[in-house]
Amino acid sequence: MDSQLEVDEYLAMGHDQVNQAFVSDLIGGGPVGPRVIDLGCGTAAIPVLLCQQDSDAHVTGIDSSIEMLEAARIEIELGGVTGRIHLEHADCKTLDGYGAGIADTVISNTVLHHLAEPQQMIAAAIRILRPGGRLFLRDLFRPKNSEAIEQLVDSHARAESDYAKQLLRQSLHAALTAHEIREILASFEVPGDAVQLTSDRHWTIDWTLPV
Q1: What gap in Å lies between CA 43 and CA 34, rounded to an integer?
Q2: CA dihedral defined by 181, 187, 188, 193, rounded to 10 degrees?
């Protein structure tokens, strides 16, 4: 999202429940920090919630959109967690300039389906994870047909703008199935059972890098 209009539309969408579910599942599933890196942090809603609910967490939020990062600075201040979230402008597909093993936990929410080659970001995420660190990535999964997609759009975006409905529709069409993401992960020696369906439209990778 590279325009202010797109960022404003994104902020107007009802992401609160989804973001809280992400943070609750992350904290409930095992150790989190303290060094957390969020790939494609957007407006930093998830880092803000995480820092509010885990007093030990310190998050580096990375995004390629300057407009998103500017919105994130405001959300961090409003959330009362200034000083615990550091924002950086970078390409999550490569993470050039980021050393190996620098993160205790790498997280990302609904970014992979935007990428032509999602395996690039997965490789980068694993590279910056310390041995024994945790990979927690969540994204949409592609339903079996267009009818199922429209049912999800109606169920989750009925009260949203036409822009938001179309964004969800396009995202579901572009998303990977659980089988497809497991095939990608196999090339990184990540077991298939690290991927679980965690809602009616999301799968989640929750995996610990062996020591």
Answers
A1: 21
A2: 50
CATH superfamily of 4-141+176-208: Vaccinia Virus protein VP39 (3.40.50.150)
Extract the tokens encoding 113.
């389906």
Which residues are CB-neighbours of 30 under 8 A, at least 6 positions away?
A: 134, 206, 208
Q: Is residue 6's pLDDT more than 90?
A: no
Task: For the chain, give every domain's residue range.
Answer: 4-141+176-208, 143-175
Cβ contact 9:164 at 8 Å: yes
Place of tokens 């500017």: 70
Q: pTM for the full model?
A: 0.94
Label residue 51 left, alpha or beta by phi (over 0 means left) and psi (-120 to 50 means alpha): alpha
Read off the pLDDT of residues 104-114 as tens digits, 9 standing for 90 and up: 999 999 999 99
Separation of alpha carbons 97 and 37, rounded Å: 14
Structure tokens at 177: 């199935």
Classify 120 as helix, strand or coil.
helix
